[in-house]
Specification:
Rossmann fold; alpha/beta; 204 residues; seven-stranded mixed β-sheet; globular
Amino acid sequence: MHLACFDLEGVFVPEIWIRFAEETGIVALRLTTRDVPDYDALMRRRIEILNDQGLRLADIQDVISRMEPLPGAREFLDSLRRRIPVLIVSDTFTQFAGPLIAKLNYPTLLCNRLEIASDGKVTGYRLRQEDGKRKVALAMQGLNYRVIAVGDSYNDVRMLTTADHGILFRPPASVRREYPSLPVAEDYPELERLIGGILTREEP
């Protein structure tokens, strides 16, 4: 049996921090795990910028409430979920993801949590677990699933290379160049063909 694990941002929805950077004009917030492999350093810098600028959780949530999934994302997910189980495994936060997950028809999401002060200030973050994406792939394999994993950034690579099948979706040139063994899909029809080919070859 097969199960699919997907990243969220960059695969099904726009990058939240990039959209927030565009609306606030804070260029430094445009950096994501597509640019910075060290997630902890990236998050500590983001939190520092938010607090320096007097920005609160509600400011980010306001931007997220007006975001939409990438064109075709919900239709692709709905179609795949009729064939195999799907998990969204993301480095985003529960306080961010709700409106976007609703617009994707509520796929199962595993993610992290922000630490928020009583005044709405972001003070830190709490990982669901260290190396969580890779460990989800390992856990599902331990339940006798063959795992298909899809992501776009450096923080997805350990999940992709642990899975039985890893696929990059619209990755930046640096990730594509550093991991040439991973197949690449540039759109949902191509991703559907790659996953469909795996299922056709391996499903009894």
